[in-house]
Write a structure and sequence with these properties.
three-stranded antiparallel beta sheet, 3 domains, Multidrug-efflux Transporter Regulator, Chain: A, Domain 2, single chain
Length: about 300
Amino acid sequence: MSSSSEPQAAYYPIRVVSNETGVNAITLRAWERRYELITPKRTAKGHRLYTEADIQLIKKVVSLLQRGIPISQAKAMLVNGAPEPELKTTISQPSQWNQYRSRLAKAIQEFDDQEIAALLDEVTNFFPVDITLRFLLLPLHQQLKEQVTQPLGLSHLQFFGGFLQGRLTARLSDSSETALKGTLALANTTYDDELELLLLGVLLKQLGIRVLRLAGNIPTTELAMLIAKQQLDGAVIRIPAIANDVQRQQLQTLAAESGQLIFCTGFHQDEADMLRRKGLMTLSGDAQQDALTIKDVLIGINE
């Protein structure tokens, strides 16, 4: 499936297209080889070049995938000129994702890390990371949390959580994507599980925000110094569900002394008003929505 050629059209390398659409280069090449969604032009040395029309087409594909439409069906819809379905009428669990989820659940039950790695490599070759998280990894992780009281339920959850943390940490360390919209520290001020914080960090990176991840429990005083020294745009921090008086004062001091945006997650929603009064920005706990909120705030501040 190719876009129309325009003699005077501008052409963009795959790195630029990846930054613009949020689809990594590996996935773009896979869509080209397996589904013929895009047929970019080539330079004399074989490098891919994309037009603005190609970029808009990729964005349409991503929009369909975000609604749960399998990629093969998304191609057919674009070829036939079918309108994009409304989100509320989309099937919430398309069969393609159910198949992936069943395979992944079986591998977890058998503690087969090699099969998990192979499956995730396969999926991420064809789908952007945010869509993989939404339709595969997050639902399965939630399912495992609900099964924690079953025999070996906790072991299954911790096994998959550990594997997922390793993958997400590696993703955050990947320097192949260009930061466009600011830099934030990612820190945990509690001893709670960091998985949800890592998920948020990966989604932020997918949106073009550089994430400086700090492992382990970080004191707020240390975080304030880091923000100032590295001239960061702020931080995303996980805080206690119910902060005590000392912790509340530390958070207020962090917001005041850093002078930058401090986004908080992990708190009980009853704490939200108090945190906002202390100069902190509260997040909803929905990683995808929170990532978009942070991006919009950063764009507004930096423009």
